[in-house]
Amino acid sequence: MKLTTKGRYAVTAMLDLALHGESGPVSLAEISVRQEISLSYLEQLFSKLRRNGLVISTRGPGGGYSVARELHLVAVSEIIGAVNESVDATQCGGKENCHGHGRCLTHDLWEGLSAQIEEFLSSVSLQDMIDRQRVQNASLRQDKVMVQRPYA
């Protein structure tokens, strides 16, 4: 099973946006500094997130991005899917050609694991993540770094 940095970064950036977006749009430069994700990479991710209706952009001074829906309505699985990621534990990508001639002995096992992971990620919303004390603590720590190293 492989969840690439694309999916991880998308979830991280959306969570940052949710944590800091209460007072208005958040710039990608701010997210970039706090999360140590390249600005150009964030721009690519947010283009996909916007196309999939998860964020809205505001242009001009004070512009940036906002979460498009209420936080409890945005599932982690949706974010991962929006950036064209999947959590598939099968070796064949679900095509049942594991050995080139058909399904392998353990295909059902890995397919079941993939379904369990998808179900779990679908059950966790941005609001659920924000409600976790460890997430709050990490956010406060990152905000202190932001004060010490403001974005350009």
Written description of the protein model:
The chain is 54% helix and 5% strand. Strands 1-2 form a two-stranded antiparallel sheet. A hairpin with a 5-residue loop joins strand 1 and strand 2. The chain starts with a helix and ends with a helix.
Structure, briefly:
The chain is 54% helix and 5% strand.
Strand content: 5-15%
β-strand number:
2
Trace the largest sheet across and list its strands: 1-2
Helix/strand/pairing class, anyone?
Answer: mainly alpha
Low-pLDDT runs of 5+ residues are: none
What sequence of helices (H) and strands (E) makes up the elements?
A: HHHEEHHHH
Shape: elongated
What is the number of helical segments per DSSP (H or I, 4+ residues)? 7
Average pLDDT: 89
Q: Estimate percent helicity.
A: 40-55%
Gyration radius over CA: 18 Å
Largest sheet: 2 strands, antiparallel
Itemize the secondary structure elements and their pairings:
Blueprint: H1 5-20, H2 28-35, H3 39-51, E1 55-58, E2 64-67, H4 76-82, H5 107-123, H6 126-130, H7 133-148
Antiparallel strand pairs: 1-2
Spell out the key features of this protein.
152 residues; mainly alpha; two-stranded antiparallel sheet; 7 helices; elongated
